[in-house]
Amino acid sequence: MGVTARLLRAGVAWAFIGTGCSHSAATSPTSPTASERREEWLAALRSDVDRLAEADGFHGQLRVLHDGKAELERTFRPAECLPLGVGRRLLSTLAMALLVQDGVLDFEDRLDRRLPSAAGTSLANLSVANLLTGSAGLAPTTGATLDERLDAAEKLPLRGAGTRVDPADDRPWRLLERVVAHVAGEPYAAFIERRVFGPAGLRDTTLGRTTVCADSTDGTTTVDDQFRLIEALRAGTLVRPSTRDALWTPRLPLGAGLDVGYGFVLRSNGEQRAVGLASSGQASAYELWLDPSRSDALVLLGQTSAHTARSVRTALAEFYALPPGPPSPASAPRR
Fold it and tell me: Of the four, 28, 76, 87, 226, which is 20 to 30 A from 200 by CA?
């Protein structure tokens, strides 16, 4: 019996909110305790994750923190070089939040006020919020690099900014990096290293290539550093709790229980909530999810693509009821 059937039959509740077994029989002196049953389920999950990772050729690392301790931790080698991938978006989100907190920027500011190069282009009326919610509506473009594709987009009409979310489009995030650099008055990398890496204690995250990761042009990271970032967010040592909560406020509804915040995807089911972001398709695998009210969190990083990691992630989702990855491009009401 696969992990899906075992877990569904057991009636496992969402471990990111609380565990339990709603359909299990009352515990008797001879029946397994709840903790014993959970260990059995975890053993099955570990076995399935190992098997799926080997079958699909997934290379990377994952860690699940539950009730303050690592409940599941795996490394699938080679995993010495782990791309930062869409985790770079999280850095840009935090950079913008810090500038808002400093009082030099507002989430509703238009780009023509904050980025002189945007004046007179199709990007002029976009707001910082449009970029952070992935709803900039940039026209399709071609180019050898991300910067070339972004520069080409400013010459074309937008496709309904604020009404359509495209999580696969990296161009708004490069545009955010330009805004950060201009408003902060220093290169993007310098601002991130000074205002994010230092306060959050990120010791092994980069924004470019390293000798070990010569092909990772957008940066590298580690599971330890991603958990340091999570803890800095929880503790309010990076941005104030009120600023952090503004990032985690739903801004664009995408479907039942699924919303976009500023730089984060938000999943809810009644009182249950998870906040995070994830890659999809051929982008390098990246998953970061946390329960905003408890210490539970998950990080998955892959040297291989998110598509390759899909079966591993699905096995985790079936146990922890984690949110799905980024939605497909979809229409959404205006904010």
Answer: 76
> Which of these, 31, 44, 38, lies nearest to 13 by C-alpha position?
38
Distance CA 66, CA 296 (A): 5
Nearest to 105 by CA among 131, 87, 86, 123: 131
Pairwise CA distance, residues 6 & 88, whole Å: 36
* pTM (2 d.p.): 0.85
Query: Quick one: which of 77, 50, 61 has its CA closest to 302?
Result: 61
Distance between CA atoms of 130 and 110, rounded to whole angstroms?
A: 9
Beta pairing partners, 72: 64
The tokens for 329 are 């491009």
Q: Mark residue 11 as left, alpha or beta (left: phi above 0; alpha: psi -120 to 50; beta: remaining).
A: left
- Answer for the pair 185, 52: CB distance below 8 angstroms, yes or no: no
Q: Which residues contact 141 (CB under 8 A, 6 or more apart)?
A: 149, 150, 152, 153, 156, 171
Give whole-number Cα distances, 16 to 32, 63, 156, 261, 285, in Å.
Answer: 22, 13, 44, 20, 21
Q: What is the pLDDT of residues 125-150, one digit of tens each?
A: 999 999 999 999 999 999 999 999 99
Q: Does domain 87-331 have CATH number 3.40.710.10?
A: yes
CA-to-CA dists, residue 138 to 148, 160, 266, angstroms = 13, 9, 23
- Assign 73 to helix, strand or coil: strand
246, exposed or middle or buried, with CB in 10 Å at 0-12, 13-18, 19+? middle
CA gap 132, 247 in Å, rounded: 9
Coil, strand or helix at 186: coil
